[in-house]
Amino acid sequence: MTEQHRFDERIAQEIAIEPQDWMPDEYRKTLIRQIGQHAHSEIVGMLPEGNWLTRAPSLKRKAILLAKVQDEAGHGLYLYSAAETLGCAREDIYQKMLDGRMKYSSIFNYPTLNWADIGVIGWLVDGAAIVNQVALCRTSYGPYARAMVKICKEESFHQRQGFEACNVLAQGSESQRQMLQDAINRFWWPALMMFGPNDDNSPNSAQSLAWKIKRFGNDELRQRFVDNTVPQVELLGMTVPDKDLRWNEETGHYEFGEIDWHEFNEVVAGRGLCNEERLAAKRKAWEEGAWVREAALAYAAKNVG
Ligand code: ACO
Fold first, then answer.
1. CA 123 to ligand 1 centroid distance, Å
2. Which of 28, 31, 221, 223 has the fewest CB atoms within 10 Å around its CB?
3. How far is CA 163 from the centre of its chain?
4. Is the ipTM of this complex over 0.90?
């Protein structure tokens, strides 16, 4: 039996592929790309919320937000470790992100303008992330699947605290309700874009599905998110900014309007509202942290001998 054959059999039988197992080069490359992008998203994703740490409206909200932002850093670290099991160096993929040669999620290139944005990010953005990541708990690469289990538990807390913060605003004054609706209006479509291009325009999906790296197509997960979330928007007494949204009794799903793919492509190409600001912040942090890395290496070298 060839190595390829053994690999195909393990995929067919849903036996996880582990770091020491033989795997096709393209499988390894695809995983490094996806896990690397995922890790970068967690790390860059700390910035829009970090912006509100000093301005949270109460000590309770500040403590929750601080914990959430720290969780995102932890998720990034698990994911860089998972990527490293495939033989890449985290410094290398991190540098590629800083140079704009590796992507991170489009969603983090939108600004956080008011406090409601923070609730809406927890509720909608982490809500979308969970739909995608619950599916990845069964991805075929063992270290990635195991990282997802813990990450999903934490994301679930993030989503709930976001919805709870939105619920407080929804029951507040007229201007608080308007602030919430405005945040929903700005984040709804970018949240739908998180799932990636339509399946017809997704160059990686077919192979990733065959390898069971992805367990569902981009459109199916996006539909699941819409179906889950529209009733939550209604529960808050808010509206979805989509004139084409309607419930289809026959299919048991919501129909929704066309995503602005031009906007999506622009943001992914680096021309979104905050792309430059986000990368500049990460480059500054990397440069200013040089002394910490040097000190840690010197300390480790001293303690080896
Ligand atoms: N933002 C930025 N880039 C995107 C996005 C997005 N929302 N969606 C797709 N892309 C990129 C893909 O990375 C791919 O680029 P590449 O081939 O140059 O690497 C290209 O657009 C085409 O898309 P697909 O062929 O559909 O790519 P893929 O099969 O990788 O599917 C998806 C994209 C669904 C995002 C997948 O990579 C995935 O599930 N990743 C893990 C989850 C993740 O990264 N979440 C990050 C946000 S959640 C959070 O951090 C809180």
1. 20
2. 28
3. 17
4. yes
Element (H, E) at 34: helix 25-44
The string of DSSP codes covering 151-205 is HHHHHHHHHHHHHHHHHHHHTS-HHHHHHHHHHHHHHHHHHHHTT-S-GGG-TTH
Bridge partners of residue 254, in order along the sequence:
247
- Cβ–ligand 1 contact at 112 (below 6 Å): no
User: What amino acid is encoded at 112 in this protein?
Assistant: T
Q: At what angle do helices 59-84 and 142-170 cross, to 10 degrees?
A: 160
Work out the number of other CB atoms within 10 angstroms of the CB of residue 303.
Answer: 7
pTM, to two decimals? 0.97
Q: Which two tokens stand for residue 235?
A: 């529960």
In the chain, the DSSP E strands lie at 246-248, 253-255
pLDDT digits (tens, 9 = 90+) for 113-132: 999 999 999 999 999 999 99
